[in-house]
Structure formats: structure tokens, C-alpha cells
Give the backbone structure.
Amino acid sequence: MKDVEYLERIEQAEALLKPQRVDVLRQLAEPRSCTEVAAVLDQTPQRVYYHVKRLVEAGLVKQVTERKVRAVSEGVYQATARSYWLSPGLVGRIGPRAARDELSLGYLVDLMEEVQSDVAALDRTAPELPSIGVSGEIRVEPERRQEFLDELKTTLQDLFTRYGGAEGDAFKLAVACYPKGEARD
């Protein structure tokens, strides 16, 4: 089972984004039959099988074995991943892409889509995946905002210049700086 499955096909999103199927998928974190899932969810095995079949067609669930129960073959299914990540490309753009500068919200959204796609493409089976994630909060007085942004840009440009040679492993560095919004419940 993969840790994360990156979904790029609309059929996968359609199969996943139904509350009953999400419930079934959660039950299939461990191998189970439709009958076992039905008992937990208080549904009929036929109804669960219908949802499992759609999830199998979308590649979100696979049959891992089969067993005989009272002379009837019963499939045992398991989710293909522990979590699913929807590609922003599934929604697509509405209208043409506007020219954006690096200080615009649109540029930040585009950058996050690119980072999400790049991270999803990484080989999670590799024994060592040299990466780092850093997050923090910085408070800047409004009159010093431009000074802060200029210093951040200069620091990053210095890193790009210092480590931007043609030798060695290539790393992608993306930095997002945005106003912190209200906390969500």
C-alpha cells in the first residue's frame, strides 16, 4: 500500500468524492471483504460491493485475495493508499492565465500547484528521500514589509547563485510567503 496516491484523472476524483465511498475506502485500510465492510457500516454487502467495484475501476482499491465462504468465492479488497491527494489540475483554469508577477496571489497559487505536482512525482519507495520542509510565522511591521521581502529575495538569490552549478543532485526550492489568515475550525 502506498502512503499517498496522487489523483490526476477526473474519473478517480468522481469515484472518490462520494461520502459513502469514502466510508468504504476507510474500512479498506486493512484487507476486508464486502461482507465485513457492510457489517461495520450497517449496509448490505451488495451496496458495499457496488461502491467497491467503482473504487476498483478508478484504481483506488484492489482485490488482494479471494476466499471461499460456504462454497462461494468472496473477494478481499484493500485501499491502494493511506491517503489520496487530488491534483489541482482536475478543476482546471477558468479563462486564460493572466500574466502574474511574483508578488501576486495568482503566482503563489501557480507555485503551490507546481510544488504539489513535483512532490507527487517523487519516488516514495526510495530508501532515502533527501528533503526538508520548514514552516514558521514571521511578524513584520507594515513599514518594514518591503525591506523584509527584499531581504528574503536577496537571501534566496544568494543561495541560487552559490549552489546553482551543473554538478551534483538537483533540488527544487520553493518559498511561499503570504499573510496569515484567521485560524480555521
